[in-house]
Amino acid sequence: MNSKHIIHIALVFLLISCASNKYGETPINQFQVIGSHNSYKQAIDKHLLDTLKVLYPWANELEYSHISLPDQLSLGLRNLEIDIYADTQGGRFAHPKGFSMIPGQSPYNADGVMNRPGFKIFHVTEIDFRSSCPTLKICLQQLKKWSDSHPNHFPVFITLEAKENSQKEVEEGRSSPTENFTPKLFAELDSIILAELGKEKVITPDFVRGNSETLNKAITQQGWPKLNQVKGKFLFILDDNGSKCELYLKDHPSLKGRVLFVNAKPGDPASATLILNNPKEDLSISDLAKHGYLIRTRSDANTIQARNNDYSQFDAACQSGAQIITTDYYKVSDFFKSSYRIAFKDNTYVRKNPLFEKK
Question: How far is CA 54 from the centre of its chain?
Answer without folding.
Answer: 30
